[in-house]
Design a protein that fits this description.
About 45% of the residues lie in helices and about 20% in strands. The protein is an alpha+beta fold and about 240 residues long. It has a five-stranded mixed barrel. A two-stranded antiparallel ribbon has the order 4-8. Strands 9-10 form a two-stranded antiparallel ribbon. A hairpin with a 5-residue loop joins β2 (about 110-115) and β3. The protein is elongated. About 25% of the residues are buried.
């Protein structure tokens, strides 16, 4: 505050100087040139205009420093923050929070492809769940999970709800998926075809999902019917083979 007050007189001084110099440059620019100078009036006026612009620039700097409110550093930081915010703005999430898209194909229980309104094809990974991998040798209940998702989604128009992250490290869209007013992520958990998989900061429904998972585990549904098959990191096919 003291710094601003000390610069205030300088702001007024340079503002007044800029106005005076500019007016003289219009009326009689020769006053600012040496009497022995043979420079034409146009050149003299150009020199004075340059001086006037310089005084005006210095005046503007003092105005920014002495202006009430935030400091110059805070203003610069605010501008940078606004730029950064614009860079992380979601590509797809509309104002309603849900994005509609047509499902074109199913990859596995928790992954599928969509066609956007722009005609682009995107891969979608369901948030907060994990189903057994198909791979070269499908893990137990991997095909069942894929078939369940295929029956629900193929050819359907779905609504995608995004959490904190829009994409994962592989470029896939991350979403909670709705069809016929039902969340598919929850349905897979209810059927015992998926486990809860938490990857912060996308944790919006983690408590609800854990309750659903607990019920499926207690009922020993599908993946939970095999001892030690479900782990914190995924599914242990070796444990499943040993238990059969």
């Amino acid at each position: 505050m003291i710094l601003k007050e000390s610069f205030a007189p300088l702001f007024l001084l340079f503002t007044l100087l800029a106005i005076i110099v500019w007016m003289i440059s219009l009326v009689k620019p020769s006053l600012f040139t040496r009497r022995s100078s043979n420079a034409p009036v146009r050149k003299s006026r150009k020199q004075v205009n340059t001086l006037s612009l310089l005084a005006g620039a210095v005046s503007f700097v003092f105005f920014v420093v002495t202006a009430p409110g935030t400091s110059l550093l805070e203003k610069a930081e605010s501008i940078l923050n606004s730029i950064n915010d614009s860079e992380v703005t979601s590509t797809y999430a509309p104002a309603s929070g849900l994005m509609e898209a047509e499902v074109t194909s199913i990859t596995d229980g928790d992954t599928f492809r969509i066609r956007t309104d722009d005609g682009d094809t995107e891969k979608v990974r369901m948030l907060l769940i994990d189903t057994p991998e198909i791979g070269d040798k499908p893990e137990p209940y991997a095909l069942e999970a894929r078939d369940f998702t295929t029956e629900l989604l193929k050819g359907q128009t779905v609504q995608l709800e995004f959490d904190e992250s829009e994409r994962d490290q592989y470029g896939r869209l991350l979403a909670y998926v709705y069809v016929n007013e039902q969340m598919v992520n929850e349905l897979l958990l209810e059927q015992g075809l998926a486990r809860v998989a938490v990857f912060p900061p996308d944790t919006r429904y983690v408590d609800d999902f854990r309750e659903i998972e607990t019920k499926a585990r207690e009922a020993k549904l599908r993946v939970w019917s095999i001892d030690n098959y479900v782990t914190n990191r995924g599914f242990d096919a070796d444990a499943a083979a040993a238990g059969q």
